[in-house]
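User: quick one, fold this
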Amino acid sequence: MTLLADRPVSPTRDRARGRRRTWRDFLEPRYITLAVAALAVAYLALVPIGTMLYASLQTQFLGVTQGTWTFQHYVDTFTAPGFGELVLNSFVYAAATSVVSTVLGFGLAWLVVRTNTPAKGFARVAALVPLIIPGILNTVAWSLLLSPQRGPVNVVLRDAHLPIFNVFSLTGMVFVQSMHVIPVAYLMGTAAFTSMDSSLEEAALASGSSPLHTFRRITLRMARPAIMSAALLMFIQTISTFEVPQLIGVPGRRFVFVSRIYSALQSFPPDYGTVGVLGIFVLVVASLGLILAQRLGRGSAVQTITGKGFRSRPQDLGRWRWLGFAGFMLFFVVAVALPIAMLVWSSLLPGYEQPSLHALHDLTFSNYHQILKRPGLTQSVKNSLITAVVSALIVTALSAVVAYITVKTKVFGRGLLDGLATVPIAVPSVVMGVGILYWYLAAPLPVHLYGTLTILIVAFVTITLPYGMRYLVPGMSQIKDELEEAATASGASWLQSFRRVFVPLLMPSLLAAFLYTMIVAFREISAAIFLYSSGTEVVSVQVYDLYSNGSYPVVAALGVVMVLFLSVLAGAVRLLSRKVGIKSG
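Assistant:
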């Protein structure tokens, strides 16, 4: 085993040890780039939160008169009638969704990675398709499918003399949100099961343990940290999403934090104090959950990868593998086929009609023509493309630099920088949107960003930065230090070695980070709904406005176009990623 003291030190570090650094050393491009990245991360993560905290403690925020410090907003909010029910609904909604989506997502991942279930290639694609469908379109599709009176699914249930499923309920909210976030849990489960050595399970089976007992005592124990991390992420995403609480919860009179924040901002005058209090409350809950999950994860982590190498062999389920195949098909029908079919059907009708042979005579493409005729829709598409592409480029570049700092340097405070880059994942998107709104309304900046696309880009970069980091940090960790040392010894500057060594090797991770952040930014509405103004609407906001006005067919047509565009984009980036970066032997 190689001792840490025997590891080679880069020429740059050697020179730093041989003489004392002066202020001129910190003017090198390397240190300037690292400092700018660190300041940018700190600004993005801390300023919105600090501004929202300030607003919650002021008697007058954005008012004509000067406000004073007070805790009255906290007293009024926590003692208001219905606050207990609001907290209960929010926690039940987020916790139930977290459990359902994590169980189903990890169950699918286990079947795909660790078993011999047939049609695993089909299951991989089916599990990721809901990730491409924007959350607001998924919500719209299920609100039409499960409408108590006219929903096709409930019509079939009613004709079969079975109880209907009312989507406008807390159970309906959990179901719709779970269908949308299962792919994220699936991806985390796939990563966990792929890197898990199967020798322990094989040893247990050889010792006479039943497959069920082995799965419960060994497989689940090894996957526990990943399961807890996924459950936490599902909880945070659910408690901060806007679409389901607003489109399904509000009509069903099931209010949660997000719907209460939105209604407070829509009131006249806006109740900034209450919004700030609720935002801080949600932030504290999310942060405590993150800390608890990290501690429990460290305490229950099991090391399974050794220097001897490991293998992941699929388990033979016997006849039960066909039950797994049936699970694949059921998930595809429920999570993919039904919502997309509903969007396509609704987009081809002048007005909403029940699926029937008679309705086939009314099929038309007029809704697709209306997309081109409405200036607001075409402008929103341009706005979404601009904000999504620019945000993804910024996040990818910033994540690469921050990942280099945290993985490849010994800079003091690199752990704090990594924590700051991860902070937005514990801040619900709606809270981050409100914090950014408050800051750019109140801060005496020389440039006014409110009402521009720039403020949307700032929000999207802040929200997606942690996800870019999750792609780049593992990729950066796999690149040995000796490659950079060789480049430095050959006379390359830091910028040259970063561009010629790290960028080509990180290209698959860079493309993956770019694709994911672009898709998230393109479909983001939880923060955008608070930051847009006339002329800066993005597609997700336009979909919400059209749905609120009853223009269901146009919404469906726009949704079909969005899904096709994102699918083509994902396929193009995937093909490109196979031609660049490290080629596997």
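User: anything notable?
Assistant: The domain at 84-304+312-364 is CATH 1.10.3720.10 (MetI-like fold).
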